[in-house]
Amino acid sequence: PVGLSPPPHPHQTRSPIDQAHSVDKDRSGVISDTELQQALSNGTWTPFNPVTVRSIISMFDRENKGGVNFNEFAGVWKYITDWQNIFRTYDRDNSGFIDKNELKQALTGFGYRLSDQFYNTLIEKFDRQRKGQVAFDDFIQCCIVLQRLTDVFRRYDTDQDGWIQVSYEQYLSMVFNVV
Ligand SMILES: [Ca+2]
Ligand SMILES: [Ca+2]
Ligand SMILES: [Ca+2]
């Protein structure tokens, strides 16, 4: 089981608002990183990657309040459910992990063209559990980071030939866009 727990299954018909109420443990009306992290499961016994939680919250937290309100949570909920479906689609052997070949198929499916060598780099970077493959939370994180870096690169690669020439300060600005 990967994704939200409980309930971990998308076929359960609780609305995002009901879900938000149960996730908002301190009843503040805002779902914090900690509350979201506690509600999430990556299908293993390790806690859901806090960096992934922060990435997701910041994507939907429009007023920079350090969490999401119940309306924004609906977006978070859908976002995670979508990732859950993607993860299941590419986890061909249902192992609960994405191995190198599965990652290759997923990212190729998203339109990335990366070398075999670079997939080793990705696994090394995002395999938080040191299993040689990536869990659900780390898979999301890998895709988010790759997307962000690619977006920044594309902004500079105006002729889209896959090459850019940047000055030191442009380089710093690029990195600051991501970190
Ligand atoms: Ca709260
Ligand atoms: Ca697998
Ligand atoms: Ca170029």
Automatic annotation (TrEMBL):
Originating organism: Esox lucius (Northern pike)
Q: Which residues form the EF-hand domain?
A: 78-113, 144-179
At the highest ranks, the source species' classification is:
Eukaryota, Metazoa, Chordata, Craniata, Vertebrata
Name listed for the protein in its UniProt record: Programmed cell death protein 6
GO cellular component annotations, sorted alphabetically? endoplasmic reticulum membrane; endosome; ER to Golgi transport vesicle membrane; nucleus
Report the membrane topology from the UniProt record. Answer: Peripheral membrane protein
Compositional bias per record (Pro residues), positions renumbered to this chain: 1-10
Where is the region Disordered? Answer: 1-28
Question: Single GO molecular-function term?
Answer: protein homodimerization activity
**PROSITE patterns registered for this protein in UniProt:** EF_HAND_1, EF_HAND_2
InterPro entries on file: EF-hand-dom_pair, EF_Hand_1_Ca_BS, EF_hand_dom, Peflin/Sorcin_CaBP
The record's function comment reads: Has a lower Ca(2+) affinity than isoform 1.
